[in-house]
Design a protein that fits this description.
single chain; Alpha-Beta Plaits; 6-stranded antiparallel β-sheet; 6 strands; 9 helices; alpha+beta; 247 residues
């Protein structure tokens, strides 16, 4: 015979689920960051590996389809999703746990090794989406400079701690000079390494022949932009406004 749970125990322990009742307004941005990826990806090409970038893109596209994200922006082991409509009733605990676990499992399967991502929710309003992306893209540029500087100096010095100590606190223009002095012009590196990769839904027109007639129709597809504009510019802002107009 199945035993019923005493009601007082249920009430007691439900109160101890301290974040279960925490809700977020929408729209939201959800940013995922990889944990300990510098060690996990030791066998991948440094400072950037196209194979890993494609893993992030394909995993991101799957989550966009699964949870109806309007767009995603990724660089290195970071990805941000934009959810315009309510998800899981707005429950913060559930959004963070499910989005991070779903993405972690997809990346793990593609890499053939267990990896994990943490998750955080950002609640934008007005121009905040544009400003947020401009900020993360600036971080992508700094990450690009720091990664190239680190692995360039590592070949010279051979000691990771010494390189990290030397680069600690260096500004972007200083990192740029370090590379330029060694014959590396960061501006000539692939755009996706400098600016990140942007994924978004778009209506794409197709043509099919049916009973001797050409029939045109539209379907929504996820577009991969490996050369996104700078979001800090008017071009980048207009680009994002066009995507947000789909709401």
């Amino acid at each position: 015979m199945k035993r019923s749970k005493p009601k007082y125990l249920e009430k007691k322990w439900k109160k101890c689920e301290i974040y279960s009742g925490l809700l977020t307004p929408f729209p939201i941005l959800v940013r995922l960051d990889g944990r300990n990826f510098s060690n996990l990806l030791s066998k991948f090409e440094k400072p950037y590996d196209l194979r890993f970038a494609k893993v992030m893109v394909e995993s991101g596209k799957e989550l966009m389809r699964e949870f109806n994200a309007l767009f995603a922006f990724t660089f290195s082991d970071e990805i941000t999703f934009f959810f315009p409509t309510e998800l899981f009733g707005g429950r913060v605990e559930k959004i963070n746990s499910i989005i991070s676990s779903e993405f972690s499992s997809r990346v793990s399967l593609r890499l053939g090794m267990p990896v994990s991502f943490d998750s955080r929710i950002i609640t934008p309003s007005g121009n905040d989406v544009w400003e947020y992306l401009a900020w993360r893209q600036e971080e992508a540029w700094r990450n690009h400079l720091n990664s190239y500087a680190f692995y360039t100096l590592l070949k010279e010095i051979g000691d990771r701690r010494e390189v990290q100590k030397y680069l600690n606190g260096k500004k972007s223009d200083e990192l740029h000079d370090i590379l330029f002095q060694r014959g590396i012009n960061p501006a000539k590196n692939p755009p996706w390494q400098k600016r990140g990769i942007f994924l978004h839904w778009k209506e794409v027109e197709f043509e099919r022949e049916f009973d001797g007639r050409i029939v045109r129709f539209k379907r929504r597809r996820i577009v991969e932009n490996w050369e996104p504009p700078l979001f800090s510019t008017d071009e980048g802002r207009n680009y994002l406004v066009e995507i947000l107009s789909q709401l």
